[in-house]
Amino acid sequence: MTAADRRRAAGALAGAAAVALVLGACASMPDHGAVMESTVQVDTAREIAFNVQGPAVDADPEQLVQSFVSVAQFAPANASTANVAREYVLPSAWSGWDRTSRVLVLSQYPEWETGVVDDEATTATVTGQAQVVATVDEIGVYTELPEPSPVDVSFELSRAAGGQWRISGLDDGLLVLANFLGDSFHRTTLSYPTPDREWWVPDVRWFPEQSWRTAATREILAGPPADLAHSTISVVPDGTTLALDAVTVDDSGVIEVSVTSPIGGASAEDRALLVAQLSETLRDREGRSVVLSEGTSPLATQSVTEPSRPLTVGDALALVEVDGATVLRRVVGRELTDTAQAYVLDGLDPTALGVAPDDGTVVVRDGTDRLVRVSGEAPVELLVGDGLASPSVDRFGTVWTADSAAVRAVLPDGGTLEVDGDWTDARHARSVAVSPEGARIAVVLDGPAGPETWVAAVQRDADDAPTGLSEAVRVGAPVAGVTSAAWFEESTLLLLGRDPDGADALYLAGIGGLAGAGGGESRQYTAPTGVTQVTSGVGGGSPPLVVDADGTLQVRQSAALWPSVSEDVVAVTYPG
């Protein structure tokens, strides 16, 4: 048997598991009706019995390792699959293996190599090079790499009872094919309240499927991560931990969370908000409600006004050329309508605009170096700078932009601030976009190899004025030539970049990894050709809008249907 034959034989196990996965998912597929497109992730892992098997009799070292990798990637999904994976490994090696200390997300299985192993050998080493497209760390943080990165992996093997090869040494961590990441790890959205308790701020993690609620609860009790620490709050008293090392769901869908005694120091309002926070995070799938207990004693909680999930509030506005003048129009469905009030744009050269949520402040970029606030009266100058980015207006009325040196904010009272983080490093920002809840900002910066998209939390003072940006995370790292980023879903950006052929193209990129099939990786988003501008909103009522080089505005109705709304459009934006 050749090396290629051995790889095909050993790799068949992964194919069998994939078949089981597909069959499990088909049970809930529609079998009639019109073709539909969806970005919803189908949850199937709990219904899947993975078709995995233990070591084949007389498998050689290379076959054994390939089969183990194929099985072990599903071990986080359920205990029975983990027990099958255990059969490949000697007990001493299994007990010392920390499989979730890091997860390497692979584009394909490694090509395995083994030195000469004669019939009398008692040890062997199998090596390979994995092409890693993303990683998941020990607390579930997903990082997409700019391009596949080679990582050397190796396994030590020994002959066990009966002369059968077993793994005696392996590196900590897990190898998972990208297409199977969502079957072994649950994409979990942790929710933290903003300081005014009005909005949830999402924080996407990937936890082992069989214990995701327990892992998520630990993170909630520990408080917001460092990058959100100054943009969100914790209502959990210090020292509060899980009293039982498991969060369970009973047959009626009640999620039982038992915590330690420091919870007694929380106010009734804070306890109620914690229950709401846990419910928002944990009730995916069969979960219905949360019961919080101190030890074995259920805690009474009062009703509370729950924060809202991030949502774009208000219609998009467009700058349109009509009879030689530029006017503002509201985008409603497939039509442009008059705005509630007239806006004076006389004497301006409008090239971009921003609008606050719920018909708030409207700001126009005049040429490329000036921002003005427009209304029914004469425009008011807000900021002058070199090569200003299109403005973004947050829910507090602060106007965001950037010039060749810094990210800048204009406060409602007209004061201006330089709002940077260490990661901006005085690089030119091409695009800024504040999230609907105002706690995060997406910035496209020039990098050494081209534009880079980053998301950071916005730090504010007691008056909601921005004071700085947290440490940022890179988003959509493989997407080339990005010129702008728009909020598409609460943890997803719509990027205007370039495809492999160099043409303008739209991409979806997840903050913490994209939902759906594909292992969290960024993916191209079907759109018309020649797009030069894009805007989108968070929530079903804010479909993406694009403008091409000819000024034609189109709205997305489906992947293949982008009807025209208007011609002669200069710019368009949703609130935010």
UniProtKB/TrEMBL annotation:
Keyword hit for Transcription: no
SUPFAM superfamilies documented for this protein: YWTD domain (SSF63825)
Domain Lipoprotein LpqB C-terminal, chain residue ranges per copy: 348-570
Listed InterPro entries: GerMN, LpqB_C, LpqB_N
Domain GerMN stretches: 195-291
Residues in the signal sequence: 1-27
Keyword tRNA processing tagged: no
Domain Lipoprotein LpqB N-terminal: 54-178
Domain of life: Bacteria
Keyword annotations: Lipoprotein, Signal
Pfam families, A to Z: Germane, Gmad1, LpqB_N
Protein name from the UniProt record: Lipoprotein LpqB-like beta-propeller protein
Origin organism lineage: Bacteria, Bacillati, Actinomycetota, Actinomycetes, Micrococcales
